[in-house]
Specification:
It is a single chain. The chain is 46% helix and 10% strand. The chain is mainly α. The radius of gyration is 16 Å and the shape is globular. The chain has one domain.
Length: 192
Amino acid sequence: MQLLIIRLFDILFAIIGLSFLSPVFIVIVILGIIDTGKPIFYQQRVGQHRKPFTLIKFRTMKPNTASVGTHLVDSNAITPLGSFLRKTKLDELPQLINVLLGTMSLVGARPCLPNQSDLIKVRTKHGVYNHKPGITGLAQINNIDMSTPKKLAKIDATMHKNLNICYYFSLILKTIIGQGAGDAAQQKNKKQ
């Protein structure tokens, strides 16, 4: 019953978010065209039951950036607009479409790439893939990213084990008020 109620709230919040934030979407798309020429980013990710799905985001990195975990990417690959979108978490807004499609929930483990085999292995062991991936979760608000697969999988499993309506709203609220910084790219030494 809890999962059904969470799914209904997912749908409701996704519809409200897409409706009210459509002007923001339009502005970001226009700025994204100026920034990289390709404002929308599609990428294969690992979903519930390890089934692949296409994640939708606003582009934050240069179009030729390698398809690897954010923690493996040179921070120089992030565009100026992308940096702003990441800090404000606005790059995640198109994932509301994924939520409507049922491939994601608002709350769940962040979906990883198919080539992140260490993380997939440990998440499988902890039963994380029995649940839909999410836009935000316990790991995100605690700044635990994919660079620490074992720690991440354990916290993902803990979140799903304890997930109920109150916890769901708590994690969403903490995300909205800005708790957690998200995945960080590698900082490279810049010449002065």
